[in-house]
Every structure is written in structure tokens, then in C-alpha cells.
Amino acid sequence: MGWFSGGYGFSSMGVWTVGGLEVSTGKVSSIEAMNGSTVLLPCTYSSCIGIENLYFNWQYNDNGTLIKLCEALIPMEGVEPKVRVSHERVEFVGSSKSNNISILLWNITFEDEGEYICFARNPKEKNRNHSAIFTLIVVDQMKEVDNTLTIIIVSALGGVIGLVIIVMVIKAVVVHFLQKDDEKNKECLVSSSGNDNTENGLSGAKTENKGTPKA
């Protein structure tokens, strides 16, 4: 089989290394998908010194037996691999230009549930190899997210905000009426003061008239 020999696979190498060449399935290492759907099994590789004849494969862990799904050799960076697919429902969707060696698994069944291993080996790094596991969980239907707590929190916040708005409106109305009352009281005080002065002036005039002696 040439470079597609079992000696390059995960099962025969049996060594997981960290540093240098690394493969990753991303921040999420598992996914739930509905029976009959198509899922992406993500995997990317990275190397500090670059690659040369990078070998990679995908394998499925069937109760301890590793079943090869696909494999390929990337001669150098930027050169697309010729992928040999060993599973009828597997499709390679990666690209060496983005260090991507992901695959699609079409029309999944409950038998497809389990661990999928992305393996890579870089001769340029003295045959350093690395693997990453991605777990597939197959379900009848997706779980419904319970938004009850979120709704309660949003409703409570809405109630508090509404109460604050109502209090501010009432306060503004009360202040408005109080200002009007103050203006009216000031007008009344001014009018009352004017009337008092007028009356005082008239009464003083009358007193002076009464006090004048007859000729």
C-alpha cells in the first residue's frame, strides 16, 4: 500500500504527543445530532516548522476496533491532498491551504454514535504524530431549551423598569403641580399686599379729613 501502510496509523503508533505537530477538533469536542442528519467532524493541524509529506487519517472507534474512514498525504503546504475514502458516507471537505482536514458524515444512524479520531504524522518533525478525538452523539430529536428562568428574569426586570418609569412620571406631575401652586400663592400674596396698601392709604386720607378744623 506504499505510504498508506498501517504503520502510520493511530492504532499501530499508539503515541500521542503534545508540542510541535498538533491536531485539534476545536473548542467543542463533541456534538449531538439527529438521526438521519449530516454532521461535520472538524479537525485542523498546525506545525511550528511546517509540514512535508504530512500523513493524516480519520478512524472510528468501534468498541476498541479502529475502523479507517479516510486517509491522505499532503506533500507540502498549500498542495491539496488526494484523499482515499474508505466509507461510503464520508466526504473530505478540508483544504491544506487552511490546514483543515475535516470530513462530513452523511445520513448518520444510531450505529454511527461514538468516538472519531483525527490522526496526523509529520516526517519533517522526525515523524512526530498527534491525535484528537471528536465524539458524536445521535439522538431522536434535539432537546428543547428551557427558557422559563430567562423569561422570569426578563419579566422581573421589565416590571422593575416599568415601576421606575411610573414613579418618575408621577414625580414629574407632582412637581409640575407644586410649581403651579407656588406661582398661584405668589400671585395671591402680591395681590393681597397691593390691596392692603390701597386700603391703608384710603383710611389714612379719611382720618386726615376728619381731623381738619372748620374755618
UniProtKB/TrEMBL annotation:
Keyword flag Transmembrane: yes
Keyword line: Disulfide bond, Glycoprotein, Immunoglobulin domain, Membrane, Signal, Transmembrane, Transmembrane helix
Any GO BP annotation: regulation of ventricular cardiac muscle cell membrane repolarization
Source organism of the structure: Haplochromis burtoni (Burton's mouthbrooder)
Positions of transmembrane segments: 149-174
Gene Ontology MF: a single term: sodium channel regulator activity
Membrane-topology annotation of the record: Single-pass type I membrane protein
GO cellular component, as recorded: voltage-gated sodium channel complex
UniProt cross-references to InterPro entries, sorted A to Z: Ig-like_dom, Ig-like_dom_sf, Ig-like_fold, Ig_sub, Ig_V-set, Myelin_P0-rel
Protein name (Swiss-Prot/TrEMBL): Sodium voltage-gated channel beta subunit 4
Record field: compositional bias (Polar residues): 190-201
Domain (Ig-like) ranges: 21-135
Higher taxonomy: Eukaryota, Metazoa, Chordata, Craniata, Vertebrata
Subcellular location: Membrane
Domain of life: Eukaryota
Stretches assigned to coiled coil: none
Region (Disordered): 188-215
